[in-house]
Specification:
Elements: E1 24-25, E2 46-50, E3 56-60, H1 61-66, E4 70-77, E5 82-93, H2 94-97, E6 107-112, E7 117-121, E8 131-136, E9 139-140, E10 150-152, E11 165-171, H3 178-181
Parallel strand pairs: 1-5, 2-11
Antiparallel strand pairs: 2-3, 4-5, 5-8, 6-7, 6-11, 8-9, 8-10
Domain Oxidoreductase molybdopterin-binding: 35-179
Region (Disordered): 1-22
Pfam families: Oxidored_molyb
């Protein structure tokens, strides 16, 4: 099943395809990270969802692989002004992880191996809007691009698609993550140029 972000309605020549304001197109996939690239072994990898009440739900690598994955084709947009069109990913919709999670929370903080965090409204992760991905362009996701597992939230700037994903914690209030505490916008909509707070 293919999923498309805003701007897709049929294939148009690249010159006519919209990109968010202030963005330029690239065929590259620049690597931008803070700190060293974590070495995350799939034999010990685990994803935890922790509710605002402290209840925890966990998936190891085998449990992740057993969930129904989708092939996703989306455009991605970096806050540093590059956009890449028609990127191909494979991953599990975030909805699948929340099927048995009871929560009144409206916000999520994504946590990465290495200590990175970013905040998102829970609604932006559900209803087919976000994925936990393990493949890019038909290959296992490389560590430089967030492998073995990253969050993919293509309708927001790419800093919201946390690399090296290890946990999602649920919160009643919006709690800024790393870049948000350092001047980036709390939400990060590229179509509204929400780069900085």
């Amino acid at each position: 099943m293919a999923v498309f972000t805003r701007g897709f309605g049929g294939r148009r020549p690249d010159s006519e395809r919209p990109v968010p304001p202030g963005q330029y197109l690239t065929d590259d996939f620049p690597v931008l990270s803070i700190g060293p690239t974590p070495n995350v072994d799939t034999s010990t990898w685990q994803l935890t969802i922790r509710t605002e009440e402290g209840a925890e739900h966990r998936w190891d690598w085998a449990a992740l692989q057993a969930l129904p994955a989708e092939d996703v084709t989306v455009d991605i947009h970096c806050v540093t002004r590059w956009s890449k069109q028609d990127t191909h990913w494979r991953g599990v919709p975030v909805d699948a992880f929340f099927a048995d999670v009871e929560t009144a929370a409206e916000y999520v903080v994504a946590h990465s191996f290495g200590g990175y965090t970013t905040n998102l409204p829970l609604d932006d992760l559900l209803d087919g809007r976000a994925w936990v991905v393990t493949e890019y362009e038909g290959e296992p996701l490389e560590p430089l691009h967030g492998g073995p597992v990253r969050l993919l939230v293509p309708h927001l700037y790419l800093w919201k698609s946390a690399k090296w994903l290890r946990a999602l914690t649920l919160h009643l209030d919006d709690e800024p993550g790393f870049w948000e505490q350092n001047g980036y916008h709390l939400y990060g909509d590229p179509w509204s140029e929400q780069r900085y707070g």
